[in-house]
Write a structure and sequence with these properties.
The complex is a heterodimer of chains A (238) and B (224). Chain A is built from six helices and seven strands, in the order E-H-E-H-E-H-E-H-E-H-E-H-E. In chain B, strand 5, helix 6 and strand 6 form a beta-alpha-beta unit. The chains are: A alpha/beta (238), B alpha/beta (224).
């Protein structure tokens, strides 16, 4: 039986990963901030081997508490899926005037860094022994092409972009640090997808994006450690 | 003669850059947290010393108001590393956040604050002192916080090169080498003189084609 611990599992991409893998018999620890509101996830938990945990990844004490709950249980795939564009929730738009040049907001930038860059590192620190004790030994980061320095042409979304660049660096360094323990670490780019963050005019349906990423994840080998792979299997430039 | 503003100009690479640009006749605005203690900087002919804590937004805005003259080159040199380094399993997230503030957000804030000064100048160049340790392609084990702040700075460089191209502002990152400074230590391979000379050369050669790139101090392009 394959087990997964996934953050941000109540909607969008995270929810669809659970929706696809739970019927295949995966044992899933699905984390979200407000389980009481996660009705779609709850429906999956009612009929599959899915356990829901309350977790705000920005609150590191909650990560420690989750570790106490899970103990030494092996985790095949630790999936750092939770991420934010900004602390208020709204759809991605080119019209955003925040996160642009001349609008520096230090607190907001740091809040995005904490959720998108530091929380994944904290999750990996806390659950590294669980992953090392599993068969698959995989740590996944939900990154974005917005964090690709080589692909950036336009500026804007500075907080989000730098947080995903830094996350890719975390991923690369962990791939080197944890190689000796047999752990595979990699970043995913989901494509611009019709989620709450991506908005309804995005290029990909959730089905297309997660369908592709599930194939990438299932086919991962240790040789893929340190890679940044898009939903369609292509490498994304740094 | 052109004017250059240098952050972290009281020691190491910043101090040596101040020396070399001043020796070449440039007007040098040397910034540091404690001007009273910056005796070496103050002794250089052609250098004006300014108090600046780059992580203090009010301090940056205050300096931008104090200085009225155009600034040809903004050299975002001030930066920190963590010693001992924070390694996997013993992260200190408060210190990591502080490092982001100094190495990533502060250079961005400096460019915002001095945007108008740059626009009014002839050269319009921003040089961000990054590090090869911020190269994701080239990365290895350890020093994750420092690496991540410099990778994020490189993203700032690349994104700003697009945002500011309409103002004809040139923004690039430069790896100064492993330099014999307080940060680099006595065993480092490169002298501050050679590193500063490389940075000066890159700044003087910078044209539109250099914008959005990551250079080694010896001139070649480094991978993101």
């Amino acid at each position: 039986m394959t087990s997964m611990l996934i953050t941000g599992a109540n909607r969008g991409l995270g929810l669809d990963f659970v929706r696809r893998l739970a019927p295949e018999g995966w044992h899933i620890h699905a984390c979200c901030r407000n389980p009481g509101k996660a009705t779609d996830l709850q429906a999956l938990a009612d009929t599959h081997d899915v356990t829901i945990h309350a977790l705000d990844v920005a609150d590191f004490a909650q990560i420690d508490a989750l570790k106490k709950t899970l103990g030494d249980e092996p985790i095949d795939v630790l999936f750092n899926n939770a991420g934010i564009m900004e602390t208020i929730q709204r759809t991605l738009s080119l019209d955003h005037t925040n996160q642009m040049f001349d609008t520096l907001d230090e607190d907001e930038w740091m809040a995005v860094m904490r959720v998108n860059t530091m929380a994944p590192m904290r999750m990996c620190e806390v659950f590294v022994d669980n992953v090392a004790a599993s068969a698959r030994k995989q740590m996944l980061m939900m990154s974005s092409i917005v964090g690709s320095i080589g692909s950036n042409q336009t500026g804007r979304w500075y907080h989000y972009a730098t947080s995903k660049t830094a996350l890719n660096m975390v991923m690369r360094s962990l791939a080197a640090d944890l190689k000796d323990r047999g752990i595979t670490v990699m970043s995913l780019h989901p494509g611009w997808t019709q989620t709450d963050m991506g908005g309804p005019t995005a290029a990909l349906t959730i089905d297309e994006s997660v369908g592709g990423m599930v194939e990438v994840v299932k086919n991962l080998t240790p040789a893929d450690s340190g890679r940044f792979i898009a939903w369609n299997g292509e490498d994304v430039p740094w | 003669m052109p004017t250059i503003l240098i952050t972290g100009a009281n020691r190491g690479i910043g101090l040596e850059c101040a020396r070399q640009f001043a020796a070449d006749g440039w007007t040098v605005l040397g910034c540091c947290r404690k001007p009273d203690a910056a005796t070496e900087l103050a002794a250089i002919e052609g250098v004006t010393v300014h108090a600046l804590d780059v992580t203090d937004i009010a301090s940056v805005d205050r300096l931008a108001k104090t200085i009225s003259e155009p600034i040809d080159v903004l050299l975002n040199n001030a930066g920190q590393s963590l010693r001992p380094a924070l390694e996997f399993g013993s992260m200190d997230y408060g210190r990591w956040s502080d490092l982001f503030a100094v190495n990533t957000l502060a250079p961005f804030k400096m460019i915002e604050a001095f945007h108008d000064h740059l626009c009014r100048s002839d050269r319009k160049v921003v040089a961000n002192v990054s590090s090869i340790m911020g190269s994701i392609e080239d990365t290895g084990s350890g020093h994750v916080p420092y690496r991540s702040t410099k990778a994020a700075l490189n993203m700032v460089t690349k994104a700003l090169s697009g945002d500011l191209s309409s103002d004809n502002i040139i923004v690039f990152s430069i790896h100064p080498g492993w330099v014999r400074t307080d940060m680099g230590g006595p065993k480092a391979a490169v002298s501050p003189e050679d590193s500063a000379a490389g940075i000066k050369k890159a700044i003087e050669a910078a044209d539109a084609n250099a914008s959005g790139r990551f250079f080694n101090w010896t001139g070649e392009t480094l991978p993101w």
